[in-house]
Amino acid sequence: MIIESRFNGPPGTGNGGYSAGLVASHVDGAASGVEVTLRLPPPLQTELTVRAEEKLRIFAGADLIAEAEPSAVGTDDAVPPVSYPDAVEAAKSYRGFVSHPFPTCFVCGPEREPGDGLRLFPGKLDDGRTAAPFVVPTDISPVLVWAVLDCPGGWSVPLETRPHVLGRMAARVDGMPAPGDQCVVMGRMVGQEGRKAYVRSTLYGSSGVVLATSRATWLAV
Q1: Are 140 and 176 in contact (CB under 8 A)?
Q2: What CATH homologous superfamily does 5-220 map to?
Q3: How does pLDDT run across 99-109, given as a tens digit for each residue?
Q4: Cα atoms in the Cβ-side hemisphere of radius 13 Å centred on 30
Q5: What's the pTM?
Q6: Which candidate, 18, 44, 64, 150, has a CA 20 to 30 Å from the CA of 104?
Q7: What are phi and psi of 200, to 5 degrees?
């Protein structure tokens, strides 16, 4: 298993959601969801070893990078949606345009070129939720859906004042959007404890149906 350099989050390491989704793709029989814990920043362009032990474990040499196991993710984790036009409007106030800890992030980096990064720009709503419009690319996959769920949840945390990175993510993918679909990604912070911020995120299809949802723990750095 290799995380290609294109899929970075912080410079030199894998985007948390994409990396977690790639790890989750190796877990069998987990239709209700998979939980992935990132133990170390996922390295790029490095051969990673997959070991099916009591948990699925991912190693770079002797270093434990990630662990994964089935974990139920229910519809009660879904963040209520806004319309696609409202998400477009919210994205205009994306705080990452002004201050971004990782401006080349594959998912939410404003310095990524169109067609290279996903360029999801989650703007904050008055009630604290974030909303981002998402036009589905031609190479959409379940792994990319994990990436899509990542940063919109993270930006419900004040990342511009104190950078955070993904530590743990549990996600459930119930459906795939089609290339070109106009979707909405929602995020919401539901709690904080010390360095940890707890968030939820949801991907809605063009018809308004929930396609995927996640819960995650972000860690201040």
Answers
A1: yes
A2: Acyl-CoA thioesterase, double hotdog domain (2.40.160.210)
A3: 999 999 999 99
A4: 23
A5: 0.96
A6: 64
A7: -125, 150
